[in-house]
């Protein structure tokens, strides 16, 4: 095993050099298998276009109170008004609350599939049909996931995906329109090539550090320092991914050809299998010391992360990151349009959920190291809390 102090476990999968030369495979899962798809730089661009395309502006969209915020910003910028429904302590949608909140101005229901775990899409579809509403499936966190045998994003009127959270690509979001109705969607222009190149090099360097240990870490640090100076000196516009806010000036930005090439070369079924394997490993090694959000992994689910519940989130995150594990502080803020006091279960989720990487780059040996570090961090948190109490 790698000494815990020398670990490097990135939150997202890295780009292996051979992937730049791999041949494309037939896309067996959406959005790659979808006949009516448009690709964008960000998934949030697809949210904005969905509002405009389906005429949801000047109407209300019922959205989950547990949200990132950038999707709400995109919807508001496009002219729609968000209204929020209850989500429980296990990411469970309160369907009765959704039904109660449907009013004369409601035009659409918005369902988020969290971290690869399917939401109640069939029930939401029935509610939407009963009231003549559009159903939007947000699969930004659930690329490659299915609800049993039904791929997520194929039941709603539209499915929205983010590619770079699950695949080692520099950018990418997708909008899939389901059903018989066809929409004429323009092909958005490619992003600045320098920005794509910058993200690609960053992903390659992360792979170097993941595989190269101390030598890889040193080389990555040197190249990053050199690269930052070059980007600044050349005034290169680097359109950052993973940002917290919607920016209208990037709404028409498309996905880079390199992203599509890398994405289509991925073995999607193998990625799902490895992520599920890593999730089950963590579940078996951690469930006795920290409560997982879910005690099982539904059939077809492709987990984005391993979500767990902690009491002192900041302390646990600091301990994990000090050991080289880039754990995620998952969705800690409400959008200002949502009354935090009205959704106490969501407020607690935002205070307590930490997500541990379990992506396809991580071997069983690495996962064993990760499990040991997480166990130590959680036990240290409990000791701190006990002394404070």
Walkthrough of the structure:
This is Aminotransferase DegT. By secondary structure, the chain is α/β, with parallel strands linked by helices. It folds into three domains: 25-177, Type I PLP-dependent aspartate aminotransferase-like (Major domain) (Aspartate Aminotransferase, domain 2); 192-238; 268-387, Aspartate Aminotransferase, domain 1 (Alpha-Beta Complex), CATH 3.90.1150.10. It contains ten helices and twelve strands. The longest helix is centred in the middle third of the chain and has 42 residues, at 193-234. It starts with 36 loop residues before the first strand and ends with a helix.
The third-level CATH topology of the largest domain is Aspartate Aminotransferase, domain 2
Structural class from helices and strands?
alpha/beta
Q: Helix fraction? A: 25-40%
Q: How many domains comprise the coordinates?
A: 3
Question: In total, how many beta strands?
Answer: 12
Question: What composes the largest sheet?
Answer: 7 strands, mixed
What value does the Rg take, in angstroms? Answer: 21 Å
How far do the termini sit from each other?
36 Å
Strand fraction: 5-15%
Large-scale geometry:
globular
- The ordered H/E elements are EHEHEHEHEEEEEHHHEHEHEH
| Unreliable segments of 5+ consecutive residues | 1-5, 222-236
CATH-assigned homologous superfamily of the largest domain: Type I PLP-dependent aspartate aminotransferase-like (Major domain)
CATH class of the largest domain: Alpha Beta
Keywords: Aminotransferase, Pyridoxal phosphate, Transferase
Organism: Myxococcus llanfairpwllgwyngyllgogerychwyrndrobwllllantysiliogogogochensis
Pfam families: DegT_DnrJ_EryC1
Family: Belongs to the DegT/DnrJ/EryC1 family.
